[in-house]
Amino acid sequence: MFPAISEEVPAEFFNEEGEIIYPDSDGKRMADNTKQFEWIVLIKDNLESIFKNQTDVFVAGDLLWYPVEGKPQIRVAPDVMVAFGRPKGHRGSYQQWKEDNIPPQVVFEILSINNTAQEMNRKWRFYQRFGVEEYYIYDPDDNDLNVWTRHGSYLVAQMTDPEWVSPLLQVKFVLQKDTLSIYDPQEQPFLTYVEQVNAKEQAEKEKEQAEKEKEAAIQREQKAEKEKEQAEKEKEQAEKEKEQAEKEKEQAEKEKEEVVKQLEDARQEEALALQEKEAEIARLKALLLQSGLTVE
Questions:
Q1: Of 178, 180, 207, 222, which is most buried, counting CB atoms within 10 Å of its CB?
Q2: CA angle, residues 282, 285, 288, in degrees to nearest 5
Q3: What is the DSSP string of the chain?
Q4: Which pTM does this prediction carry?
Q5: Per DSSP, what are the bridge partners of residue 134?
Q6: pLDDT exceeding 70 applies to what percent of the chain?
Q7: Separation between Cα atoms, residue 180 and residue 35, nearest integer Å
């Protein structure tokens, strides 16, 4: 059974004109320590990033939720809450009757040493009564995750070992040995702001390095092309020189053949001249013999 709701509104929720007010703060701190604060910010910021392009998903941290108009004493401030079907934008509090009567469907509570069992039981009953569909409690000190999902009118505990995927958020929760790892629908881990900055800087360095390597590769390719072009020119020049050498060799062979021919012709002419000379001597001898002269 749900607890009865007091009909009487405490005096602190009236202004001077006697009108009911819905304060933006309950006077409590957002977190009791740095660890709790970091987990609240981690979950809230990463959920906002996941749904940044969906205009009808509202994500908030430590925002008072008033589920019933006229009863400002009925309120709670989840560490993180997600309301599907509601526009983004600044709010002093989440007054459900001004939000098409849509309750936050997903809420997160991050425990600290100051949270009592009585307080957490009261919150669990509040979330069960007023329509929360997924309720998460994480204790970073004990590394303990508890999850409840709605079945009819009740929030029912779920098994989260070794991991759990949110039906509404499509976010995966994995309990490691010493901590809780959370992954977005693209299997990317939830990162703190510092981790995001470091990852961005690392990505920029890797991009810059990749650009340098690309530029170096282009320069090597250009150098290789120039060397190839130079080699082609040298090869072409060598081919020309070889061709020229072949022509010169051929010309030398022709000139050699011409010289040999000329020498052969000269020898033949010399031999012919000698023959003619010997023939002339023989003729002269014959004439002298006919004349009665003696030829020595």
A1: 180
A2: 155
A3: -PPPPP-SPPGGGB-TTS-B---S--S--S-SSHHHHHHHHHHHHHHHHHTTT-TTEEEEES--EE-STT-TTS-B--SEEEEETS-----SSEEGGGTTTPPPSEEEEE--TT--HHHHHHHHHHHHHTT-SEEEEEETTTTEEEEEEEETTEEEEE--SSEEE-TTT--EEEE-SSSEEEE-TTSPBP--HHHHHHHHHHHHHHHHHHHHHHHHHHHHHHHHHHHHHHHHHHHHHHHHHHHHHHHHHHHHHHHHHHHHHHHHHHHHHHHHHHHHHHHHHHHHHHHHHHTT----
A4: 0.72
A5: 106, 149
A6: 97
A7: 13
Q: Which two tokens stand for residue 79?
A: 């560490």
Q: pLDDT tens for residues 200-246?
A: 899 999 999 999 999 999 999 999 999 999 989 999 998 999 999 88
Q: How far apart are CA 203 and CA 198, in angstroms?
A: 8
> Rounded to an integer, what distance in angstroms lies between the CA atom of residue 243 and that of residue 236?
10
Q: What is the mean pLDDT of residues 74-100?
A: 98
Phi, psi (5° rounding) for residue 80?
-145, 140
For the chain, the structural domain boundaries read 11-190, 251-296
Burial tier of 270 (Cβ tally within 10 Å: 0-12, 13-18, 19+):
exposed
- 11-190: CATH superfamily: tt1808, chain A (3.90.1570.10)
